[in-house]
Design a protein that fits this description.
homotetramer, Butyryl-CoA Dehydrogenase, subunit A, domain 2, Butyryl-CoA Dehydrogenase, subunit A, domain 3, 3 domains, five-stranded antiparallel sheet, 11 strands
Chain lengths: 402, 402, 402, 402
């Protein structure tokens, strides 16, 4: 019942993407556990991407002249839910994080040269990228604290620093690096800049793919620790203006949170389907399916309620961003970030409990989501930070300055 | 950000009602604890009703030809939220339960004679009514079980039975009584009928206003126990067809749940305002307002998220009912019933905790809501019944018959 | 299975008290709603107190030479649970708050003259008392902030101030008043003292019994607002040393929290019995008792688990206080305060939900507990303060000073 | 403050085991991610086991004449908590599941020949074993449903069936297999028997180590799928009497749940330490450690309360089993099973949230517990089954037969 958000474009597009995900992408998931992701990128995922291009559903976030479909954020949100149904969905359509954020960033702020060199092949899916901001020594929830510096030396920046959660660095062609360009600067929010670093730069030291929740992963599906050691890049690799790093990071996050939230709702719907389906067929005793148990019914009803609530909130937020810009929707963006992440937590937990022993195995996709989406309450700002933002703005109306 | 549900009518109407509630109605609340409700009906509330008529905001649920404003359910829902800001709001505009439900019922199903006698004065606010369905001997969650009978004798029904939660009976002019007219009937859902009983009928035995959460109440604000003892009324007092009692009750409940849910959201917004306002001004130590505490901030943020979620769900449901009818939205109606009732629970509890000792006194309105809206998870179907309905419909898609 | 805490004394005493409560006290509860408490004190409760004296179960907290039974805190805790089964239990045995705390205070710190005048008749149940600390203008969670002063003038204190939650003041013979005796004092914790004020003093201005959760109450069962206006009492009315007010208040609270917690567990057990009993007999359909529903079963199981957990924690804490003193158990005392208060909340809520409509009426005792024990998470330190205390002490081990 | 459960034996033993775990075992944990478990069994763990034997802390569950320490269940529970501090603890002292359960089973019910061949080398840590009960085709929550049969043929059983969650089968020397020996039997509870199958039997078909939460594991740390295909073993391999399978399984589970629960409490204490320690040192801004945030403080306080509650409940239950036997404590055993599993869930979740990004990496041990102990609410009976058991027994007192 989200027809208030439906559009002619979506009416034609969504069923095609949905069919593509279910018929073409989902069957490939079973390989996920047997094959490295980086190898899949070359094989199965490469083929699926070609098919997606042929189907005309490639890169739905891009404008038509950039080779995409040209969707509003509210429309793309609805696509993102459908893609989120499979952990491979976004990748196959080339709208996976962090590449989608980097595309948007470069589209808006990169020079023509940088666009030619980095953006266009990225949009075509010929290369991948990563985003290098978080540092192990500082709490990610406070992005103004970082030790990585980019010091000018002639016509180059010399970057030194230590990063982790540089997700997808393994196999990426370049990193967008956040570094302090004005160490003496008095304004915490204008000290840092975003700079492009090719990963074949000798100063880019790949340390490891961090093992996350039991898996090191590879390729797009990995989270690297990286060191920048006297890493020299041309001044021209700067994205936007010097000192605009935090502004750009902030801008990047608004739509990014819509993407994540709608992807999570897609996960929720898949988990919900699996929960209902398993409850319907698995018997506790002869002719006593799990579905006949009141607690399973309660979980199903609560999940349905919470998923619906989450979807409405996110789509209204996306609609508001389309209409009034992300800045006007700052509170709503923080609200959905923690609200949906917690719905995701509950729905996955219930789906696993219904599956019993099977639920903790990797024979279903639930385990992977349960593990890797634990991060949803942490990345892009933990729940507590977003709750603070919401409270701060609400309390401001009562004269409180937080 | 619910502008998708805004209409020209609302743009002019809502601010006027909002101003009326805050300026005219809220100040009267302070009398609530000192004066009986039934006396207030004659004094302050009577005056407020006259003002509401003058303001042209009277009975906003009625069509214009019936003296109302002519709103869709989605529009009325938004009015209901604004009215819910005060516990007196609905009454002052004559759209309080159970009268609003009875008006709708009689409007649709009563004969011209019954309309003239009962509906029209009810619409004018000249009389009040009550609805007599629940019986102490049977669980209200299963409405097909009842012992009250209405047996035909000549051109009369003879009603015998025992009811409670016949809310607002004290001072009401008539009751709509649910009684079994076909005791031998094989179909549980077509055994009962709705019949109008004037409260001055000698067979209508008012037993007591049940003390609910510390208050017996009076007038509109009461919940009676009633016995029907050889209570004779003309056959013409039947509403709709014989045997249609459950059908009509069901029909009555759909929009009724929208009304309740939106009223609860109005309560939530008031409690939220009170929580923020008190947190802003109450100091734990010098210059340390409660608002500076992270847990208070978390409660504020969670409440904001949950209230927004609740409102979106209810308005989308109302919109769906406007468009496709209540039957098409059965699952959504059950979903909002338990979801919003639980949001209400949490928001009130947090608001009280922020108020500390003050929160449990009757010096604020929070205590009254905390007490009387405990019923929200019980009346019109307890949470567990609505969760069952949602699960049943979801599981039906997987071949499960519950 | 708390036999580790059983003693010979309890083995003989507990069954007698239990029988007394169930057979003599519980039947009187039905009058509670019809008669003022202050009148019941003169009639039914007076008679029950005489019976209790005859039974040799009077004032079980007092030593044998004071006319009591002479129990350790761990033993008295177990008695307190049994008394908590009825809201009248503690009163009938004269170990109700705030009198029990005042008795302990005067026993330890009052002069012989004050003991003769106030303590002995209090122990005999001939008079009642109140405790006057909380002020409406200051958050009760920070007890060092208060505006009431007691200024020496000749051989008298002149007390001026505004108090509320001076519980049981209505009908009490004297108040123990906390007032600042050293307004210029630099140490917040040694500025105040406890002073006895007879309620017939002309400077003791009884303002009102505050309506709490729908009831003003009366007598012992009330919470007064009081003003002290040039209230003169002899210097000899000082309890303990000047400036020792906070120390004594703190000391008073340690065992007081054991008493409350065990009383709450008594309430929980009664609510649990009612929940099981009603679930067993109330049918949702023919031969389908509520007890057959899985969610009701879950509530019963969760309640059983939580009540057991609560009891073990409190008894171990009481045992620790008996052995090592209250100061050594500060963390445990804060732990049980918030833990048990939250168990109480959940158990009462579930019991009400099982009772459906009946649960919100005052036809059962659940409504009264639901309303009045909402305060359990607020009085004697709200949850958040006790959680802070526990965290502060745990984190101290890691070098954090909070 | 569990000194009521302390004994002279524990006073000497516990500090030694605690020191051993912290000094010898914990440092080995860092290898866990780099090396297969089955290899560690031969290297580091083998050496640690030799040290444990020298320290006289080996196999603390065994009687002294069997080479153990001779502890009551209540004593062993306290040891189990200390061992649970490290995921390697129980294995190093040879009291890991499922071997500890098999030792107890064979000790009580195996013939002298079986004891010589299987029990004694198991007690010495020379071999490992597994327990083969759960079948993928049947819900584990109803153990009477299984398809595996053991049909007599001459002096052999011929076993056919399909099992999974045959934990530790990889590298084990024998399996205790639950199989139906009386397929025509009318009593569901006496149809099955326990039979020893050496894993080098040609009918024992090892299928795979099931990938669980991201890891296939190996050796003791694995969960196998196994097929029995015309697997012939001597009739003498029967453990106990024919048809006693369920009875023995039930018996095995009572103390087993104490072991698990106390191990979980050990995990909780480690996670709690990590949470406090990280909160103390990790700064959100300069001189603003996480520990200064109220929500972190609340998590610490709630965790302390819940862990204490859990420990008291389990130790009282163990004490009751020691005194009155497991049958008398059936309700308590079910109570702790679901209560402690849920405490574990909450404490781990909070510890991870405090750790932020680090918490989801495998750089700390939290991730592994978060993943693998998700099973705690499922294995040995899911929460819902244990809640049913508790409710059934409580409701029996009110005449309800479930």
């Amino acid at each position: 019942m989200t027809d208030l958000f439906s559009t002619d474009k979506l009416k034609s597009l969504l069923p095609r993407i949905q069919a593509f995900i279910r018929e073409e992408v989902v069957p490939v998931e079973k390989i996920l556990h047997a094959k490295s992701f980086i190898q899949m990128e070359k094989d199965e995922l490469h083929q699926l991407r070609q098919k997606a291009k042929k189907e005309g559903i490639w890169a739905p976030h891009l404008s038509e002249q950039e080779g995409g479909v040209g969707l509003s954020l509210s429309e793309f949100g609805q696509v993102s839910e459908v893609l989120g149904y499979s952990p491979l969905g976004h990748f196959v359509l080339n709208c996976q994080a962090p590449d989608i954020g980097n595309m948007e960033l470069l589209h808006k702020y990169a020079s023509k040269e940088l666009k030619d060199k980095y953006l266009h092949p990225l949009q075509q899916g010929e290369i991948r990228s990563c985003f290098s901001m978080t540092e192990p020594e500082f709490a990610g929830s406070n992005p103004t604290r970082m030790a990585t510096t980019a010091i000018k030396d002639g016509n180059e920046y010399v970057i030194n620093g230590h990063k982790w959660f540089t997700s997808s660095a393994d196999g990426a062609s370049f990193a967008v690096v956040m570094a302090v360009t004005d160490p003496e600067g008095t304004h915490a929010h204008s000290k840092a800049s975003m700079i492009i670093v090719p990963t074949d730069n000798t100063g880019f030291k790949f340390v490891r793919n961090i093992s996350i929740m039991g898996e090191e992963g590879s390729g797009h599906s990995s989270h690297a620790e990286v060191r920048y050691e006297n890493c020299r890049v041309p001044l021209a690799n700067l994205v936007g203006e010097e000192g605009s790093g935090f502004k750009l990071a902030q801008e990047r996050l608004g739509p990014g949170r819509i993407h994540h939230c709608m992807r999570w709702i897609g996960i929720c719907e898949r988990a919900f389907e699996m929960m209902c389906s398993y409850a319907a067929k698995r018997e506790l005793a002869e002719n006593v399916p799990i579905a006949s148990k009141q607690i399973a019914q309660q979980w199903i009803a609560q999940s349905r309620a919470e998923i619906n609530a989450a979807r409405y909130m996110v789509l209204h937020t996306a609609y508001g961003i389309d209409k009034n810009g992300a800045a006007a929707m700052r509170v709503e963006i923080s609200t959905i970030k923690f609200f949906v992440a917690n719905v995701l937590k509950e729905v996955l937990d219930r789906a696993i409990q219904v599956h019993g022993g099977l639920g903790i195995t990797d024979d279903t996709i639930l385990s992977s989501w349960y593990r890797h989406e634990r991060a949803a309450r942490i990345y892009d700002g933990p729940d507590e930070v977003h709750q603070y933002v919401v409270a701060r703005e609400e309390l401001r109306k009562y004269g409180v300055k937080l």
